[in-house]
Here is the input.
Amino acid sequence: MIRIKMNRLIKIRIVTGIVLLLASALTWLGCIEVTNYPPTPETLHTGQYRLNTAVTAPDSLIVASYNIYLSEDIDLAIADLRGNPQLAGADLLLLQEMDPDGADRIARAFQMDFVYWPSFKFASTGRLFGNAILSRWPITGQQAVAIPHGNPIIGIRRVVVAADIQIANHNLRVVNMHLSTVSVPLADRLEQATVALDSLTA
Here is the structure.
């Protein structure tokens, strides 16, 4: 006769459930088809909505980074930004997981110039996703760099977006990067960060 304590049985069921859930998730992820977009001039999106004509450099800059999950609910994101005076008045907004329309709408809402490059497109929806830089100061140049080591499950390869900002008589290079998740080994993610940092002086 074998006796199994109830709490042990519950633990076994929980572990089994987690394993099945992870297996289902991996199967689902494996079915996702993506198309990667190495950066080219043809994939660049820009917009000029800036009203700021200041000629004197400020004592400080407000820079905000905002990951809007798959560019969902842009109206809520705009309301969220407007609800915080510092964010609403940010000099630079770095946005991740954006589609071109979402980046354009936020730039219009806050009267900022922007540059955007997609990293990839989901085959199921045809939607593009990538990084955007929004600025209240003139954007005088832009660059995008494909970083190494794609996602090993669904193959997404990410793109770093850089912009040259003219602030009075000062030039500032801003880099917006969205590194891979823990599905990519730490050493590979550190190499991604190195490539992004190198783009500062490219």
